[in-house]
Amino acid sequence: MRAELVSIPTDTVPLDGLYYEPEGGAAGAALLFHGNTMNFYVGVLRFLPPALVKLGLACLAFNRRGHDILSTRNSRVPEGGAFQLARESIEDNRIALTIRGKDYEHRGEAASLSNMKNPMRGCGPFIHDDPTDRPLAIFGGKVTLHFGPGRQPSLVLPVIPPK
User: Fold this and answer.
1) Domain boundaries, the chain
2) Does the domain spanning 1-97 belong to CATH 3.40.190.10?
3) What tens digit of pLDDT does each residue of 52-86 get?
4) pTM to 2 decimal places
């Protein structure tokens, strides 16, 4: 099992977490986040990912801004559940799992490299807008998930091989 610390940027504090991947690749993936005043390194988010990895699933367990009751970072500025706003809680959930038809593109400021033609808005400089491979009739719409009894939801995430 491979595990890697990750940090998901937000407009205030980053959402820190741990990404787990089974040796030999993943058959699926699980996104795990806690309720208010918890964190990704205790409780269910500590013992569940290794068990899911044994089943062949990659897992991302991460903190929301409402982690712990009270915490500080390098700046010693207090953060945590005692300070989390409702809109931040909703945004953290949106950041963690956004389903789009544009392959991980975001609307924020794009990064760039001098040797790349396109700005980077998610999947590097790759914009996935070729009309042959990504026709708007298929990829330009809204994605709706349908689930319930007998219709178990699932999510396919890309598996990034180790360097």
Assistant:
1) 1-97, 99-152
2) no
3) 898 888 888 888 888 888 888 777 888 888 888 88
4) 0.55
